[in-house]
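Students often ask why inverse folding is considered easier than folding. One informal answer: many sequences map to the same fold, so there is more than one right answer. In these notes we will look at a single instance of the problem. The structure comes first.
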């Protein structure tokens, strides 16, 4: 049946395909490379949201559809990619224990056929090294990055810097601990930026985050003078900042913190 459909004139094929659901479209697209090319020309933009999650036991992909539809099907890739439907979470999952080539294949197929709206990353293991090359591939394909939650990072400084650089265009960023010299926070333009343990962050790094809308940093090692400098800089040039929350373990003098600030409300 699929191969007979592919012999139809382009206009006829387009009329048929545009009324199909995701399951039918993907079933036809995975039968051959020719089918994939033809279907990609005639499908509407069924934007999907992708979440790549790295757990201790495996890595998997979640797919969410903007129109609420879902499906359950088998997939054919060069690398085995078992896909199943999670009824409790109401989404489609794909688990594997292989390298990032498998992820690249599924991202390519979904983007060709259904169009990817954004890709998010969640790292629940103690090593984010497996996700960094995948995130770099997403950036290479000019796909939008949504939520980034790196959890606890365990790796060398080079990998951590790659992790931060690839996350700079994400909409939401969360990291468990930050501990390297990084001079590119001025490139970050996020709706929300959060670090659970920011004891190694400097005053200049915090000031450089002014293009983020909401910033939340816990366990910073700033005294009253440091916080005052940060606030003065933001008062002079707030950038896109809407909210700044700092949690410090140091003894803070409120009088010193608000020195020189004209617009202050103390609660």
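Output (designed amino acids):
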């Amino acid at each position: 049946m699929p191969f007979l459909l592919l012999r139809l004139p382009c206009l006829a094929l387009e009329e048929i395909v545009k009324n199909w659901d995701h399951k039918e479209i993907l079933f036809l697209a995975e039968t051959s490379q020719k089918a994939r090319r033809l279907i990609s020309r005639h499908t509407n933009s069924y934007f999907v949201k992708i979440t790549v999650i790295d757990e201790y036991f495996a890595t998997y992909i979640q797919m969410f559809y903007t129109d609420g539809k879902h499906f359950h099907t088998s997939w054919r890739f060069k690398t085995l990619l078992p896909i199943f439907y999670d009824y409790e979470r109401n989404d489609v999952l794909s688990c594997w224990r292989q390298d990032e080539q498998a992820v690249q294949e599924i991202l390519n197929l979904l983007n060709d056929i259904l169009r990817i709206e954004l890709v998010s990353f969640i790292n629940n293991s103690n090593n984010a090294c497996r996700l960094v090359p995948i995130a770099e591939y997403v950036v290479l394909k000019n796909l939008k990055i949504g939520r980034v939650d790196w959890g606890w990072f365990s790796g060398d400084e080079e990998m951590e810097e790659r992790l931060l650089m690839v996350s700079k265009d994400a909409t939401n960023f969360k990291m468990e601990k930050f501990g390297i010299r990084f001079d590119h926070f001025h490139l970050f333009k996020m709706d929300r930026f959060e670090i659970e343990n920011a004891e190694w962050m400097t005053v200049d790094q915090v000031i450089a985050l002014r293009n983020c809308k909401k910033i939340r940093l816990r366990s910073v090692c700033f005294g009253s003078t440091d916080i005052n400098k940060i606030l003065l800089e933001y008062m002079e040039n707030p950038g896109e900042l809407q909210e700044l929350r700092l949690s410090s373990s140091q003894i803070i003098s409120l009088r010193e913190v608000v020195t020189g600030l004209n617009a202050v409300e103390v609660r």
